[in-house]
Amino acid sequence: MRILLSVSLCNNKMSTEGNEALSPPTRQPNPQQSASSKRLQQTQAQVDEVVGIMRVNVEKVLERDQKLSELDDRAGEVLNELCKRINLVSAQFLKEIGFNG
């Protein structure tokens, strides 16, 4: 039993001593990876810029839609008022000329 225990201890010691050799060495990025990473960062920056511009554009479209809706409402009100005035003036004119329709 002592032999097994000492062999086991020896194996454990060897396995812990070898762990430094098992860890991967720190690698320097190669030039291709650096260039690729830089291109990716540039592309991401461009995408972020486009997203910002699109958000501003969407906000402007929504504001424009609101203003157009208000303008349409006002135009409808003015048109309705003009129709009432035309009907009133027409009725007065027909009354003056004695038209009984």
TrEMBL record:
Residues 15-41 are annotated as: Disordered. It comes from the Eukaryota. SUPFAM superfamilies: SNARE fusion complex (SSF58038). Residues 29-41 have a biased composition (Polar residues). One of its GO terms (cellular component) is membrane. Residues 39-101 form the V-SNARE coiled-coil homology domain. GO terms for biological process: vesicle-mediated transport. The keyword Coiled coil applies. Keywords: Coiled coil. PANTHER family: SYNAPTOBREVIN FAMILY MEMBER. This is V-SNARE coiled-coil homology domain-containing protein. The lineage of its organism: Eukaryota, Metazoa, Ecdysozoa, Arthropoda, Chelicerata. The gene is VAMP3_1.
